[in-house]
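Minutes, project check-in

Agenda point 3 was the complex the collaborators sent over. CS summarized: two entities, 866 residues total, and the question is how they sit relative to each other. Sequences were read into the notes so everyone works from the same version.
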Amino acid sequence: MFGFILRRLGLLIPTFIGVSLVAFFFIRLLPGDPVLLLAGERGISPERYAELMHRFGFDLPLWKQFIYYFTDLMHGDFGTSISTKKPIFNEFFTLFPATLELSICAVIFAVVLGVPAGVIAAVKRNSWFDHTAMATALVGYSMPIFWWALLLIIVFSGILGWTPVSGRISLLFFFPKVTGFMLIDSFLSGKAGAFQSAASHLILPTIVLGTIPLAVIARQTRSAMLEVLGEDYIRTAKAKGLSPFRVVAVHALRNALIPVITTIGLQIGVLMAGAILTETIFSWPGIGKWMVDSIFRRDYPAVQGGLVLIALIVMGVNLVVDMLYGLVNPKIRHQR
Amino acid sequence: MKTMSRLLAATMLVAGLAGAAHAKTFVYCSEGSPEGFDPAPYAAGTTFDASSKPVYSRLTEFERGTTNVIPGLAESWDISEDGTVYTFHLRKGVKFHTTEYFTPTRDFNADDVIFSFQRQNDKNDPWYAYAGGTWEYWTGMDMPNLVKSIEKVDDYTVKLTLTAANAPMLANLAMDFASILSKEYADKLAAEGKQPDLNQLPVGTGPFQFVAYEKDAVIRYQAFADYWGGKQKIDDLVFAITPDASVRVQKLKAGECQLMPYPNPADVETLQSDDSIQLMSQAGLNVGYLAYNTMMKPFDDVRVRKALNMAINKKAIIDAVFQGTGQEAKNPIPPTMWSYNDNIQDDPYDPEAAKKLLAEAGVKDLSMKVWAMPVSRPYNPNARRMAELIQADYANVGVKVEIVSYEWAEYLKRSQDKERDGALLMGWTGDNGDPDNFLAVLLGCSGVGGSNRANWCNEEFNNLVTKAAAVSDIAERTKLYEDAQVVFKKEAPWATIAHSTTYVPMSKAVIDYKVDPLGSHRFDGVDLAE
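CS then shared the predicted structure for the full assembly.
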């Protein structure tokens, strides 16, 4: 197991270098630059332009800029944002808990609904439940997030008035950040109604962000279950006279979960992409929205630093998933 | 320890809020996050709405809902005969905010004024580079070339010496970048090595004082009890940052906020029919235009430019692009601005005459580019659509149009190219309500290759606007600008297209809000019905 983890960690080094390279060059490939955008309709004189480009160090040859940036990265310095003039590491981790909280809720929502739906659909193959669930999953997967979110807001917040429109908690509540996770902070604040308010603000964004992973997980669970249910050992288990519930929940599901765990791990990347739209609509102060704003402003350091940090996190999550996978499946653990 | 004390203060504040049952809280669904809370390094209206408007005051101020310049921290001023020396007499007894991070020991005085300007003007000032050294408006308004010196005469007198007479200076000083910060606070931060806090935990003399900012989510202010203009009627001001315009509408309808900026044009109609919402509007201080590159053939010929102007059906553009919420433009400045010359006759929409004029100029089978901006701006919500309508209009007079567009930053860059081909859609929103800010910036000779997208340098026009900036008598200036507009219309470097209307939807409970012609959102003087 230890060797397995070491091998995995070793793979992270070239990935990290690759990501920092891509992050650096990707944003510079986009036309325009931060100084021009700063000037806007007013325009800018060539002298002032040169002065500002020099101030930000963008007049150096690209390879030199990259070496400076990479050296700083190695020292744990992720740079300073051009627009807010604040360290990117701080900006990122101020916003990251909001994204993480929403992502965790979305994953829980997707797993809690998706796995049972997939199992039932597999067991009752070709039943009306199977057809309805899989058709719904397909619709959920194809739904444009922007449209889906607005629809939910208009119906549940606008017409029915059941949920708040946007934000993380009612503005009546004002307490200091402790963990950055609103559910925990609101609970710690000890104010009556704060936790309920935070939870109600999470409902719609969780559904919106969790919809695509839910659809994927349901379909993946169903096909994995179908495969496992056809195996010999399941027939043996049934022949032994075990209850159908035990056969499905213990013998079949445990084996079917292996590919499902991988799928959940891969969905983390999808969540990051979905977070951009979800956060914009629900005014959710997370890193998705922040990244998009930085790209539009051509805030090179923020985009570079943000991408590297996101990549590090996704790599970390995948490492954990791989380890879980190894735990569940000894075959992988012992592979060379 | 610091966290603890903040926690304590915050708890007390909330307890205070809960205790005073009648505390009036005004929630504004703002459209974005401020870049910082020191306005001077920035250029975005969103940043100014959250920083300079609530927190700071300036030597001169714009009267609410107008572009009139009135006394602010300067009670009065004298201008020397030749218009180059301004002596400001400062208001006495003005207090800075007392916050949990700073307690002022003295009133506002001349040192604060010197500090606020010098840090932008003097490259050797210790504060020059603290926010990246990008003093956008200070350089944008040409202050480095206009200002010769800023001196303290005594604690309540400041002398500003200019390199040449410049009448718009008083309006410039009412702009956001000229906000007055506390030198005492800056010194304290410098001593503690916490310079960046000047941009994050602001201290000013404005109507509201800063309480807390949760990035990309909420900004909280409370009314400043000792505000020199008197305590505000609302007690707490909250910005709920809501980037999506449709979501802002939903929040307003649900009562989660009392006022929102920038509705989608498509939402304006439904908001108009909503009983709980009042929709205020004002002609925006802006212009959307099509700039010919007057340096390139055949657009160097005024007949060609005139002919193309006559080919455009502006009425159709207002209906299709602005959904009726704008007005046709005939001058480069909007009608709400002083010196607007209403006697000017616009080029009529007349395709036949246009064809004739093109033939007269010897132009046959012209094909040209029309540049369409990729972004939606107040002066042009949909440039692509506008370009298509112009393309169709030009086709009627036998001119073939290719529409080109680039990503915004690239568009801005290429638009400054003197060899640019064809005509460019662009626009402008006024900074300080002075005609100079339109006519000299957008059409003066010094802007060629920069903000003067038509690359039009006309001696007669340039002399008129240069002279107008140097005299301080408003009647005389008005006359000069009116004449300049006549020259502009005769020479037609642009097709002037539209001035848009700004809409501000708000709850019916909002009392005495005034829509700012300069496009900002300010909440001093606003009240809420119980």
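Noted in discussion: Residues 118 and 222 of chain A are 4 Å apart (CA to CA).
Follow-up: revisit at the next meeting once the mutant set is ready.
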